[in-house]
């Protein structure tokens, strides 16, 4: 027994008690004849005091404690003279009569404080010290609570958590698999799952009825900004359900989490928006609905002006930034530069200022009369003092650009408060995406997604217009999760494979065991998966998922702390019947 | 909405209600003008009835439903005439007025019943059908409940579940690692964790204080009877604790599980037994204490008889089988054959019968007087009617053989009831094991295990006698879990590495990042890990862990259902900068 109490629990009511605490030295302050030590553990910080009159040797020893030393303190709880209202233990201090150094510490490479002086690389290399910082640890505490509440809700709803295997089979579809050579089966490989999709569908065939799993998944992708090669999903599936059942169940889950983890009560049903509306109003299938500023289509109002930029455009769209008519030339130039950045790629931006005094200024004033511009304003419900920003071009491209501009304006106007949460469902996704390059359809979700029953007759005649029974949950502009009702009819599944250009042999090779399973009584079923890292990041108010993960990898898929991946012994390679074949210089220069 | 109720919930009180059920056809019975369909889902079985007077077409259709068809039934709940007391829904039946076939099924390759006619291979190949069997599904329901209760207990005790990475670094120590080639870092590999040992210790350095994780671990071993290449651990670690704190906490966990999952209340503390006592009394560090029959050492009583087999033996040990004096020649021969099997390897077995009438018979009667044998009996507390079985030879070898004999006798006498649970702690393990072949010490647990503080002065002088601060939880002869207090002092750790023959460079290469972390204030800490698959198996009363796992692998590490591992595309190999080098025929013939 190293301690009687943690560093976070003693209060004024404990005054007079003899206690033993253990923790890390956060700070040592010598003030005249007294030395104060802030002792820290996961639960809080408690002030320890020594004093030269009471014990000169102890006071001397305390003064020499280094930052991050691990110490055990025995002493008496006493009321503090100058209380600290900022911490829960701020009313008391421990008058020490014994301090034992349990372990020493070298000077850490950065300060262990919420605002640290450590750069990103240093923090990652010394992640075990970075995790001592409350700012990081709190994210992992939140993650723990969320995982627990997710399990509680789903268990109460009759879901069974079933562990699906990690060593599975490579399916050359979608993203790249990580593979694992099998020593016992030379020349053969396992693959790590990109998701337990097929296994959860097999569990439905098995009659498990309601399945979930909080599970690691793996994707060998070139890592973009906020992706990790290993990530965690909340994976769920239900039998004998239609879309409405699934939406109800998982809207309930999200509300449960907000309620029990963040103490936020969502009483109204989450809004539902069709994919088509989301694209039309926000240019995105994951709109940030914490603020309005929906798109307004101006094309009919701009026709025939002779302004070729607009006349030749397939689409002219605008947003109205409230109260921004006073924007300066410089501010407008900044926005123009913003949309012209290569990542966004607009050719230019037009604007109309509806001044508070009723006058109108516009970058396209020479092509349109005030009367015409006023009509635009009326159409867009712009008020005096508002600024209209306009982009034009090909429909889908321009919408995406306008989406970025809208988000930028939302940020500038402070409308994207990370502590405000706006949740909605996006429904009626298209079933297929047409790929110009390969001139074929791809499944937008995956090949097991069921078409909307109303659109089945269009499968062959108007393939691109067929809607999927697929849905996404969107929070604050992030896709929190998504799923679909699956095809359980093998004829319909064969039809889908044909439309996707998969031969029977291909389909059998890739999905054979699932197709075989479906011959033995597959129930109607559907489900979804949430990105757990993202879910935590959203509730933590973080932009990146990285600090929701205890030991993340960097953009090269490298763990800087343990220095992995690394070379392995030749004997290991031989046992595995593989060899390394490094790309030759010749190949590299191609 | 496919159903209003499940197949397990309707009762007499529901009589008269209009309901919709959905599920699988378990059985169809045509009896005169009535057809009965047993409809099954995860929750139970409900009888559906159709009748030619009410609806001839429906009755005809019902008669043609095949086994495992998926159907939806609409009908009225009615009281049954001949009730079935064996099932909770046995008081009612559904008078159907509509039956919709949702999906058909081919005839399954084995019967979907608790006692199936399917062999092992067939069950594994069609695991998704095997999982429909209540006998298998119930194990996974138990697993779910146990996982949930484990999380509940540990969360309530302030433990945080933290996910540690799956893609880590290979450490060429202990069992073989599974490795994962890194595409982005050609020639380099990740390894899958054999346990999160180093990460949990790093989390203690990070001040997480109480950590746990229910986590997949991986070991590329030649699979013995009951091992899986991927298995699940309940991994735990605590800071500022000594052994007593850890034992209390996790004894509490095990009691919590028994209480909330099996409704079994353990009120007394679990017994604790030193490793030395366990070896002396049971010849095993995981004794099955559901029954007594402890070893009795006879060596001092057998000295000088001139019976060379015993005189030359280092150890003579016996067990007393109560009430077995009446064993026939044949039964005794069977036991002799049992201990002489190559897996056990005894040279022979001796016996003494203490007959009910006070007479004595023995296989060694010509070397010992009745008086001498009677002394053996007194020493061993044998009663009239008991049978003494004796093995002799080298101490450790003979104890292991006698252990097997004891377990065999326990089984024969019905003393190993799978529904009775006997838990205990084994403590005071030796810190080191001496390996004759390499003439060096190995860490019995792992190199971070702390020596018993009382034995530290013996580290150099009597290395083999040093006890570890290590402990195992044993239930019914199975090691449920084990752990240790870790070394947190870097000088002591260096000392350990030296004793284990690790050079400083080796230690740095293998455990460098942990050693570095320990320089920054490592708290005293310790923990343990339970084998979760085994834990479930014990509570389910199963001998094997295989049916506690939804999709297990066979002894060649192969998933028979999805047929993994498998070959992968050449393009995948090239991207990963590896090639397959199959062992040549020449090598194979060596």
CATH homologous superfamily (4th level) name of the largest domain in chain A: Bira Bifunctional Protein, Domain 2
Number of domains of chain A: 4
The mean pLDDT of chain A is 94
Q: Give a quick account of the main beta sheet of chain A: strands, pairing sense, barrel closure.
A: 8 strands, mixed
What does the radius of gyration of chain A come to? Answer: 30 Å
Helix content range of chain A = 25-40%
Q: Which CATH top level class of the largest domain in chain A fits?
A: Alpha Beta
**Beta-sheet strand percentage of chain A?**
15-25%
Quaternary status: homodimer
Query: How many helical elements of chain A?
Result: 17
As for the CATH topology of the largest domain in chain A, it is BirA Bifunctional Protein, domain 2
Strand order of the largest sheet of chain A: 6-9-10-22-21-20-17-11
Morphology call of chain A? globular
Tell me which protein chains meet in the greatest interface and how many residues each side has. A-B, 125 and 125 residues
Structural class of chain A: alpha+beta
Distance between the termini of chain A: 65 Å
Q: How many β strands of chain A by DSSP?
A: 23
The stretches of 5 or more residues of chain A where confidence is low (pLDDT under 50) are: 586-590
What is the correct CATH architecture of the largest domain in chain A?
2-Layer Sandwich
């Amino acid at each position: 027994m190293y301690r009687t109490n943690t560093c976070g629990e003693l209060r004024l009511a404990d005054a007079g008690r003899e206690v033993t605490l253990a923790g890390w030295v956060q700070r040592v302050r010598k003030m005249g004849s007294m030395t104060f030590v802030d002792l820290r553990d996961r639960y809080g910080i408690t002030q320890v005091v020594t004093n030269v009159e009471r014990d000169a040797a102890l006071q001397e020893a305390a003064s020499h404690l280094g930052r991050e030393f691990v110490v055990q303190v025995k002493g008496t709880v006493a009321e503090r003279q100058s209380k600290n209202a900022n911490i829960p233990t701020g009313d008391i201090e421990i008058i020490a009569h014994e301090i034992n150094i349990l372990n020493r510490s070298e000077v850490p490479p950065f300060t262990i404080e919420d605002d640290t002086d450590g750069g990103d690389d240093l923090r990652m290399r010394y992640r075990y010290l970075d995790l001592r910082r409350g700012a990081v640890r709190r994210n992992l505490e939140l993650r723990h609570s969320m995982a627990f509440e997710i399990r509680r809700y789903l268990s109460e709803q009759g879901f069974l958590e079933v562990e699906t295997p990690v060593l599975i089979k490579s399916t050359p579809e979608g993203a790249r698999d990580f593979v694992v050579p099998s020593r016992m089966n030379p020349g053969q490989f396992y693959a790590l799952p990109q998701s337990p999709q097929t296994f959860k569908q097999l569990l439905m065939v098995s009659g498990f009825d309601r399945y979930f799993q909080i599970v690691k998944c793996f994707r060998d992708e070139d890592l973009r900004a906020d992706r990790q090669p290993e990530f965690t999903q909340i994976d769920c599936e239900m039998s004998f359900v239609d879309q409405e059942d699934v939406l109800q169940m998982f809207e309930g889950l999200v509300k449960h989490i907000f309620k029990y983890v963040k103490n936020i009560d969502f009483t109204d049903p989450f809004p539902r928006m069709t994919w088509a509306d989301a694209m039309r109003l926000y240019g995105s299938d994951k709109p940030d609905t914490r603020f309005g500023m929906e798109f307004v289509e101006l094309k009919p109002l701009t026709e025939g002006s002779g302004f070729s930029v607009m006349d030749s455009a397939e689409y002219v769209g605008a947003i109205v930034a409230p109260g921004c008519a006073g924007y300066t030339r410089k501010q407008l130039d900044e926005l123009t530069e913003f949309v012209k950045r290569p990542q966004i790629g607009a050719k230019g931006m037009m604007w109309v200022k509806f001044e508070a005094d009723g006058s109108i200024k516009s970058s396209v004033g020479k092509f349109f009369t005030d009367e015409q511009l006023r009509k635009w304003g009326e159409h867009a419900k712009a008020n005096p003092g508002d600024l209209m920003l306009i982009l034009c071009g090909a429909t889908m491209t321009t919408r995406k650009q306008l989406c970025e501009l809208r988000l930028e304006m939302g940020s500038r106007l402070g409308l994207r408060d990370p502590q405000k949460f706006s949740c909605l469902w996006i429904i009626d996704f298209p079933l297929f995406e047409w790929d110009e390059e390969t001139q074929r359809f791809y499944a937008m979700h995956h090949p097991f997604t069921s078409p909307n029953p109303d659109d089945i007759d269009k499968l062959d005649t108007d393939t691109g217009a067929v809607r999927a029974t697929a849905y996404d949950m969107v929070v604050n502009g992030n896709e929190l999760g998504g799923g679909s009702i699956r095809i359980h009819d093998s004829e319909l599944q064969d039809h889908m494979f044909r439309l996707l250009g998969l031969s029977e042999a291909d389909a059998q090779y890739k999905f054979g065991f699932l197709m075989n399973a479906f011959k033995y009584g597959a129930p109607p079923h559907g489900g979804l998966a949430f990105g757990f890292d993202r879910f935590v990041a959203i509730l933590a108010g973080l932009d990146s998922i990285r600090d929701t993960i205890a030991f993340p990898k960097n953009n090269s898929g490298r763990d800087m702390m343990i220095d992995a991946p690394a070379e392995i012994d030749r004997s290991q390679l031989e046992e595995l019947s593989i060899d390394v074949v490094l790309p030759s210089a010749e190949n590299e220069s191609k």
